[in-house]
Write a structure and sequence with these properties.
39 strands; Immunoglobulin-like; mainly beta; single chain
């Protein structure tokens, strides 16, 4: 009985082996049964498929929010998950696992139902992070870029008035690498250029808006921009004026003029309109000098200031690039052209060195001091031939009351219609000291009678 059971078992084994043999054949001819190979020592017990994914698909350097690394593990032969607790070794070429600042670039993670998940912080280095997951002899990888952080999207712009009339150059200075632009110039015109030039039809203040875009993001800024006409000078009046006197400048585009420079010195603005500026010639100009004879002894040991001509005048307009700078045939008389004695001139001789103040009303009445040497009472002082009233006399100073003066006139055309009238202007006169002996000394152009401010252009 026992023998019979053994024979049945042997027969059954033979059938199983035969079936296996038949399954491996491509013909009906029987072959000898073959055994499956047995893995050698150290060989993997299975081949695994490791799938690595990273979300999001792009990382930003120095970001404080981590990316999520997800790893899925399955057998290659039957798609079965490994047992829970199976350890997968995960490493990264950039960044760190776990927590910000941990410095951990390789970790061992246990799977649950064939899955595991890690946090990856990108770190400060840009490049490509390669994440590798390994189980036994199998591995899977994923690559994700680590890019620089984008600057905040902030709309900014500046502008410069062109040298062309009413043209403005706009310069985009936005941050955040915008990829498109929309300008609204406040007059109904727009542009999509990054740095447009826009020409306005008329001067004025315009609300200019810039909107920038980066993908779905946008930012906007707005600013009031002033369009101005380029200033230019056509004429000056009068053509002869004393330092401290008033000067009319004619031209165009003066309505936004902010300053006038005469030979580089800032002039006082008395009044302004789009076509006319009235200024006061600044004090302190560098007048040329010439030798002179202060005491009539035939030796030119002294010096006197002489007329400054031609003269550079510059009109600077608000918001304009540059300014109109012209050299005009204007004559500016010095505050005094009295001959100042040199070291070889005798101090006992009669001479005038200064008149102070050197300007006054044409109505007269003001007190003026004549400074010099050789003054002896009795004496007389003349202003342009008109006798002044003497108040006091010393050897070096005479105090007088200025007599009324006569103002000269100059042609004028305020309305620009080509018809000229006349306007009174500042008038220079000589100052003469006459001693009782008949000896005289004259300071040419030493005093200026001032014309009234805003004097009308009669007959225009």
């Amino acid at each position: 009985m026992t023998r019979l059971k053994q024979l049945k078992l042997i027969a059954g084994w033979s059938v199983a082996v035969f079936a296996l043999g038949m399954a491996g054949c491509s013909t009906d001819t029987p072959t000898a049964p073959q055994q499956q190979p047995i893995p050698g020592p150290g060989a993997p017990s299975a081949t695994w498929v490791l799938t690595v994914t990273v979300e999001p698909g792009s990382l930003t350097a120095n970001a404080t929010n981590p990316a999520t690394v997800m790893i899925r593990v399955r057998r290659a032969d039957n798609n079965a998950a490994p047992p829970n607790g199976t350890t997968v070794v995960v490493s990264t070429s950039l960044g760190e696992f776990g927590s910000l600042g941990s410095g951990t670039t390789s970790v061992a993670a246990e799977t649950v139902s064939g899955r595991t998940q890690l946090s990856l912080f990108p770190g400060s280095i840009t490049g490509t992070a390669v994440i590798t997951a390994r189980l036994e002899a199998s591995a899977g990888q994923a690559s994700v870029p680590v890019v620089e952080a984008l600057a905040p999207l902030v709309a900014l712009f500046s502008f410069q008035n062109s040298t062309d009339n009413l043209s403005i150059q706009f310069l985009n200075q936005s941050t955040g690498n915008p990829d498109s632009f929309l300008w609204n110039f406040g007059d109904g015109s727009t542009s999509t250029e990054e740095h447009p030039v826009h020409t306005y039809a008329v001067p004025g203040d315009y609300p200019v808006a810039l909107t920038i875009f980066r993908g779905s993001e946008e930012a906007k800024t707005a600013e009031i921009v002033r369009a101005v006409q380029s200033a230019f000078i056509t004429d000056v009046d009068p053509r002869v004026v004393r330092e401290g006197g008033r000067l009319q400048i004619r031209g165009q585009g003066f309505d936004t003029a902010v300053r006038v420079l005469v030979e580089g010195l800032l002039a006082k603005m008395i009044s302004k309109s789009s076509a006319l500026l009235v200024i006061e010639i600044p004090v302190g100009l560098a007048f040329p000098e010439e030798p002179c004879d202060s005491n009539g002894d035939g030796n030119e040991d002294g010096t006197r200031l002489v007329t400054l001509t031609p003269v550079n005048i510059e009109v600077v307009v608000s918001g304009q690039v540059g300014a109109d700078s012209v050299t005009v045939p204007l004559e500016i008389l010095p505050p005094s052209n009295v001959c100042t004695p040199g070291p070889g001139d005798g101090s006992g001789n009669l001479f005038i060195t200064e008149v102070s103040p050197n300007t006054g009303s044409a109505l007269g009445g003001g007190s003026v001091t004549v400074i010099g040497a050789g003054f002896f009472d009795p004496l007389r002082v003349f202003f342009g031939g008109a006798l002044a009233t003497t108040q006091s006399v010393t050897s070096s100073q005479i105090v007088v009351t200025v007599p009324p003066g006569v103002l000269l006139t100059a042609p004028c055309d305020v309305d620009g219609d080509g018809t000229q009238g006349e306007v009174v202007i500042d008038t220079l006169v000589d100052v003469t000291v006459e001693l009782s002996s008949g000896t005289t000394h004259t300071a040419p152009g030493a005093f200026t009678y001032l014309a009234p401010i805003g004097a009308p252009c009669n007959g225009d």
